[in-house]
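Write out this protein's structure.
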Amino acid sequence: MSEKLQKVLARAGLGSRRQLERWIEQGRVSVDGRTAQLGDRVTTDQKLMVDGKSVSTMLGNQSHVLLYHKPEGEICTRDDPAGRPTVFSNLAAPRDGRWVVVGRLDLNTAGLLLFTTHGELANRLMHPRYRVVREYAVRVLGQVDAADLKRLKKGVVLDDGPARFQRIEDTGGEGANHWYRVQLAEGRNREVRRMWEAVGARVSRLIRIRFGPVILPRSLHPGQSRELGRDEVEDLLKQVGLSNDRPDSNSSATRVSAASNPDEPRIRPHR
């Protein structure tokens, strides 16, 4: 069975289909030693190269997704010149291709991080068009009143544009530290922290507990990972219109309540 060349390259984690179509037009891609043309289809026994380097094609519909519980202190790059630990250090190599990280968590943020061998899936999960919901448990230091929470839900202005939480739930706490659970449908750099700073509070701990339909299990400890099952991967594909490998068949995001999942992590306030 053959597939479109740009589709195969996207699944290999090289970029979005649109980007790869440009690479093909620019003559950067070859198939069996000849310069590829837009519209080419390829099979499993053909040799693909981009910029003179061989590509693992990973033909077929199998998409691997890994759920990783990122601890604080790891960075989301493959290598760090400063020698700091990276999220890739604890991951076993996939059976095919390479892991592509879905978004990032900053050095001091812990929690759910996804990796996939399906480049197009990774691109769509990160693209703001698909409005994939992220949920965080956040410990806030500072006084926050009802007016501040209303502002955060209505929208605050950051240096890269307006931002708002779709949902805020007060989960308790004592003294200066207080826990909230928040949801938003984008993933800008340090966005959650900057939003709280906009109302005069500071985030002292931040844990991502959900990404789309995937919830961080209580049983998965920091530094551990597990591969998602077929049904879980299918749920992710449906989120971004890739169900059954049919692009844009249904791009509406499924709203899943973390509270309805019995394996949801219970984040309790620190006393």
